[in-house]
Amino acid sequence: MASTIPVPPKQLFINPPSILILGAGSRGNAYARALQTSTNAIIAAIAEPNGYKRSLFADKFLPRPLNPEQQFSDWRSWVKYETVRRERERAGEKVEKGIDAVFVCVLDEMHEEVLRGIAPLGVHVCCEKPLSTSLEACLNIFGTWKDEHKKRQSQDVQLREPVFGICHVLRYSPHNMLLRDLVVERKVIGDVLSLEHVEPVGWWHFSHSYVRYVIFVSVWWRPFSDLY
């Protein structure tokens, strides 16, 4: 009988990190659930412009009692709050604990402004795929984080360098973009009636985030001549 790989135990941190989730959509909720079921990390705050989504997220994931510093209307509001909090802390005031890591789960086209905007705070980051929607934006992000690293070094700031993690994505790879252009925009094969996408490493979604895989696509179509 084939043996199965044992399920990893729940990750228990001696000092559980405080996590901020940027974006209360499907990705933000998915990461929050994973954090709570797989670790003892603390989901300390949410930044989400939609009040209804923000409230639902808070009810499900944030510790009680709820405080104003746990919910923000957007990432800029959190940056402003965190900047002031640190100033108060440096002045000797007793302040609430800060955020250790940020999960960026906003729209793809917002990644550049968010990641560049939070770079000066030196927090750990997990960015949902893709890093950004253009090469220029990716280079801008890299440049900003590199500059902040140099600034900390020049100021001899005694902080552990932040970890920057990003998920894997294929939707913006050249061959996938070309395939979409041919099938959706140019309709070179006519109208697509059905499409099958098989991930051979397992049926569950996200499997492509952890391993390399092959896409098998079966397209059933009719030529344009059959449609008119």
Task: Set down the secondary structure blueprint.
Layout: E1 18-22, H1 26-38, E2 42-47, H2 51-61, E3 71-72, H3 75-90, E4 101-104, H4 111-118, E5 124-127, H5 135-154, E6 164-166, H6 174-185, E7 191-198, E8 216-222
Parallel strand pairs: 1-2, 1-4, 2-3, 4-5, 5-6
Antiparallel strand pairs: 7-8
Helix pairs in contact: 4-5
What can you tell me about this protein's structure?
The chain has helices at residues 26-38, 51-61, 75-90, 111-118, 135-154, 174-185, and strands spanning 18-22, 42-47, 71-72, 101-104, 124-127, 164-166, 191-198, 216-222. By secondary structure, the protein is of the alpha/beta class. It folds into two domains: 18-166, NAD(P)-binding Rossmann-like Domain (Rossmann fold), CATH 3.40.50; 174-226, no CATH class.
Briefly, what is this?
The protein has helices spanning 26-38, 51-61, 75-90, 111-118, 135-154, 174-185, and strands spanning 18-22, 42-47, 71-72, 101-104, 124-127, 164-166, 191-198, 216-222. It has 228 residues and is of the alpha/beta class. The chain has 2 domains: 18-166, 3-Layer(aba) Sandwich (Rossmann fold); 174-226, no CATH class.
